[in-house]
Amino acid sequence: FVQSTHGKTHLCYEGYRYYCHHTNADDSKYWKCVKKYCRVGITTYANGTTKRSADHDHTPNETDKEVLNVRQNLKRKVVESSSPIDSIVDETYANLQSPTKERRKTREPLPKNINDLPYPIPPNYQKSQSGEQFILYDGPIAGSRCIIFSTPSDILYLSQSEM
């Protein structure tokens, strides 16, 4: 668990962060992913078990939790210390690891060409943030891998155009 910037308790689970949407009558809690368009929810039960409702449409971000912890510690140090705020911030910043190194730890490297992409592209990466399918085809054409991107609404638009 970690405190949000607004003082709310967030659940950090498998690299994703959730806010408490509501508590059920049986004392279980329903948590929703903090990413606006992600539809994933988790229910936590008093016995420690969890149940996830779907797959995320984005990659996990372990650094998200660390940023919140750094902010919380900064606030605490500013309140408790008589040192100038500048020196507290400078000291904290000096103790942090490079964000680039952190990204390498939590995410796959960005692909440099089409051959570096997983085949087939996992289903949770084939949809837009609003959940609309946008990869129509991922396979060979004339012996080379081909990925065709489009949404059903784009296809409808093209079918009605004069082109």
TrEMBL record:
Keyword tags: Metal-binding, Zinc, Zinc-finger
Name of the protein: FLYWCH-type domain-containing protein
For this protein, the record's Pfam families field holds: FLYWCH
- Please verify whether the record's keywords include Nucleotide-binding: no
Transmembrane segments in this chain: where?
Answer: none
Keyword check for Zinc, yes or no. yes
Region Disordered, residue ranges: 91-120
Lineage summary: Eukaryota, Metazoa, Spiralia, Gnathifera, Rotifera
Could you tell me which residue ranges the FLYWCH-type domain spans? 1-59
Q: Which InterPro entries match?
A: Znf_FLYWCH (IPR007588)
Domain of life per record: Eukaryota
> Could you state a single Gene Ontology molecular function term?
zinc ion binding
